[in-house]
Amino acid sequence: MFAALGHVVMKPFMLLWLYTSPRSWRGLPIPESGSPIVVGGPDPLKVLVSGSGIVVGYGVASNALALGGSLARSIASLTGRGVEVATLACPRMTTTMAKSRLTPEALKGLDAVVLSLGTFDLLCFLPSRRWGRGMSELVDSVLANAEPNTQLFIVNCTAPKMSHFIGAYRHHLLRLTTAYNGEIEKLTHRQDRVHQIHFAPQPQDAEAVQGRESYRVWAEQIAPDIAQGLQGRPHPRGDV
What we know:
240 residues; alpha/beta; Rossmann fold; 6-stranded mixed sheet; 6 strands; 45% helix; 13% strand
């Protein structure tokens, strides 16, 4: 009850902060939707990255410089294969929104789907069990809509440092982040096609994001689990 009440109070407050605070990431540039990022090479992999937070690409003007492009280059380097990465992002994407967008058409022919969700939910104190139920429904939907061999990777939740907020808020944010990641871990025990990526960058405020360099560093932390999870897996596309 108290967790739900905290969410009811925090959501309008965070929306107000997001739209009015000079420290909000809302004023940072973000890439426009565009074509997938392609790194040439043999036996190409097709990947879709979807979510909020770091997937959006705050601070850069092109997906080639954001997480999608950085992941394409990192995965190609690790596997020696060609890689095509498409990005489907929204600053306030929820599990419900992701479920509606990750249709059979959007997931057709993919080797991997990478999800990174929960940033805004964390900041609004959405209870972890409620978030976990939403993620469970999303995972079931993705597995049903995707090809039988498509692998699903879920990146651990992270939250901005929020150093200008009071300590009690930041401490609860850390506890809730741990709880969200526990919900992700539960999902990996249900299906061998679902993988958790243990991503734990140093928390930082939005204004500290260093453009393409930050995304390069984050991709180098995320890509190894994807490369390993795809190793030896058959393509979902019969023409490859």
